[in-house]
From TrEMBL:
<feature type="transmembrane region" description="Helical">
    <location>
        <begin position="48"/>
        <end position="65"/>
    </location>
</feature>
<keyword id="KW-1003">Cell membrane</keyword>
<keyword id="KW-0812">Transmembrane</keyword>
<comment type="similarity">
    <text>Belongs to the 4-toluene sulfonate uptake permease (TSUP) (TC 2.A.102) family.</text>
</comment>
<dbReference type="Pfam" id="PF01925">
    <property type="entry name" value="TauE"/>
</dbReference>
<dbReference type="InterPro" id="IPR002781">
    <property type="entry name" value="TM_pro_TauE-like"/>
</dbReference>
<dbReference type="GO" id="GO:0005886">
    <property type="term" value="C:plasma membrane"/>
</dbReference>
<feature type="transmembrane region" description="Helical">
    <location>
        <begin position="164"/>
        <end position="182"/>
    </location>
</feature>
<protein>
    <recommendedName>
        <fullName>Probable membrane transporter protein</fullName>
    </recommendedName>
</protein>
<feature type="transmembrane region" description="Helical">
    <location>
        <begin position="77"/>
        <end position="94"/>
    </location>
</feature>
<keyword id="KW-0813">Transport</keyword>
<feature type="transmembrane region" description="Helical">
    <location>
        <begin position="100"/>
        <end position="118"/>
    </location>
</feature>
<keyword id="KW-1133">Transmembrane helix</keyword>
<dbReference type="InterPro" id="IPR052017">
    <property type="entry name" value="TSUP"/>
</dbReference>
<feature type="transmembrane region" description="Helical">
    <location>
        <begin position="227"/>
        <end position="245"/>
    </location>
</feature>
<keyword id="KW-0472">Membrane</keyword>
<feature type="transmembrane region" description="Helical">
    <location>
        <begin position="194"/>
        <end position="215"/>
    </location>
</feature>
Length: 247
């Protein structure tokens, strides 16, 4: 078992709870979990460990919201996401932890700004994405999920631009991340991001992820659409700002 302090385990436990909540109720909050893991483990090591916990959350979200997904919206993203994943693999081969944090933080803030502008510029009754927008969101989603498991905020902004209702948002996100995260596992193994100590941490934290997902599902059935959208934007901005802080 990895040698962690009580505070370290507590921080990881909180991060695991946030992962469950993010998958079942509040997409984008996963960035907070990424930040918490990075505060306890080296950034690259935490990437592999948190990936496996995200997959656990994905499986729960698929079970809970599988009937609400808009799969056609996902099919449009496939080529761009694959391209982003490959760019992320190359980036990870030479980038240090600090550079990873800064790049992801800047990208997230840029995506938030563009999404809010597009929502104002696009009529509410016309949610169809421009092909270029889908390509950009997809590429950034693939890149950020590969280098830092931080595609949640990027794809949340894409789904916000599509004006999905809460359950359609969560169901579509569940399918997207289940496929993408499972696809990332061989790359993560090849890059040495998944380690035996990391697997032990995952085994301990799986029940916490499930507990967070159960709580999140109850929240999702009650949260108003407008509040849901505002929370998604808020946690995305907070996560981006954290990544840009000098520590």
């Amino acid at each position: 078992m990895p040698e962690l302090t009580a505070l370290g385990w507590g921080t990881l436990g909180l991060a695991a709870l946030v992962i469950g909540l993010s998958k079942a109720a509040l997409p984008g909050a996963g960035t907070v979990a990424v930040a918490l893991f990075a505060a306890v483990l080296p950034a690259k090591q935490s990437t592999g460990t948190i990936l496996l916990l995200l997959i656990v959350g994905d499986m729960f979200a698929l079970w809970a919201y599988r009937r609400h997904a808009d799969l056609r919206a996902l099919v449009r993203l496939i080529p761009a996401v694959v391209a982003g994943l490959l760019v992320g693999v190359v980036f990870l081969s030479f980038a240090g932890d600090d550079l990873v944090r800064r790049v992801i933080g800047v990208l997230l803030l840029g995506v938030v700004g563009v999404t809010l502008w597009r929502r104002r510029a696009t009529p509410a009754g016309d949610p169809r994405p421009h092909p270029i927008a889908a390509a950009v969101y997809g590429t950034l989603g693939g890149f950020t999920t590969m280098v830092a498991n931080a595609a949640g905020p990027v794809m949340s902004m894409y789904f916000l631009s599509m004006r999905f209702p809460v359950k359609a948002f969560l169901g579509t996100a569940a399918w997207f991340f289940a496929v993408v995260n499972i696809t990332k596992v061989p790359f993560a193994v090849g890059l040495g991001l998944i380690t035996p100590p990391g697997l032990l941490i995952v085994a301990v934290l799986v029940p916490v992820v499930v507990a967070g997902a159960l709580i999140g599902r109850r929240i999702a059935t009650r949260i108003p659409q407008q509040l849901f959208e505002r929370l998604v934007i808020a946690v995305t901005v907070l996560g981006a700002v954290y990544l840009l802080l000098p520590f």
